[in-house]
Write the structure tokens for this entry.
Amino acid sequence: MTELKEISIYPIKSLRGVAVSEALVEKRGLRHDRRWMVTDREGMFLTQREFPRMALIGVEVGEEHVVLRAPGMAELTIPHQPADGPRRPVTVWNSTVEAAEYPADVNEWLSKAIGSECVLFAMPAEAERHVNPLFDRGDDLVSFADGYPLLLIGEGSLAELNRRIAASSQQDPPPRPSATPPMQGGEHFDPLPMKRLRPNLVIGGSEPFEEDRWARVRVGEAVFRVVRPCARCAITTVDPDRGEFDGKEPLKTLATFRMAKDVFPETLEELALQPNYVLFGENLIPENPGAIVRVGDEVELLETRR
């Protein structure tokens, strides 16, 4: 049976994720997922691409407050929305939306934790940031995520990626597919953990990259459109436990077999992909906000891509 194995949210964009057993699906994505964001003084988003130390900052979301923890620092508790915080436009890639700014003491704490001057913002409930117009049916919104409400990855896909990385590191032809990467000549390979890829939903029981052909799925009571593959960036090369860049993997290996021009040669334009994007995971848009997803939910394929 194909089932939901893990659920994760990332309350503050690019900070450490939080594993949960269930989550409310809202129009913008899972509840509390990327509803806060760190920017520079001009309101441009900051991520682990520039500041890998962001991976070390933990976030806990309560009913009314958010708690931040960073190595060597006292924890910081902030409200979900800053009281009377000024509204300013903030930018994620080419998308701009009004957000509420936290006061100086919060920003000083974060600036020290990250190692660069920064500002924290919350997304107001009334804010409307739309997904890519190619996939927007008129009311499809997203939080501060890069472009879409959720990211889904299959366990089988990560196992296949790890198998190929292991084979490449040993300069050996890829052996028969296995969930356990091979080890030869006394060498040890530590498989990349799923948290390195930062998905919201992890699916078990599917074949490697089976999700490539999905167009619409049901996860428990929630229904999602599978709108496009996710183009991966340098954040995947950050070790989330050390807050440091960790070589060229998985991008190096993904480039050998997951380039958009090779995986989707006939539908690049339809899926808004550039030929040299390296792909891993699928972006989702909720169809029935208000549903709840739970670890263990059955995953049912409703439609496939053409």
User: Anything to note?
Assistant: Helices lie at 104-114, 155-169, 251-257, 260-263. The radius of gyration is 19 Å. Residues 34-122 form one domain.
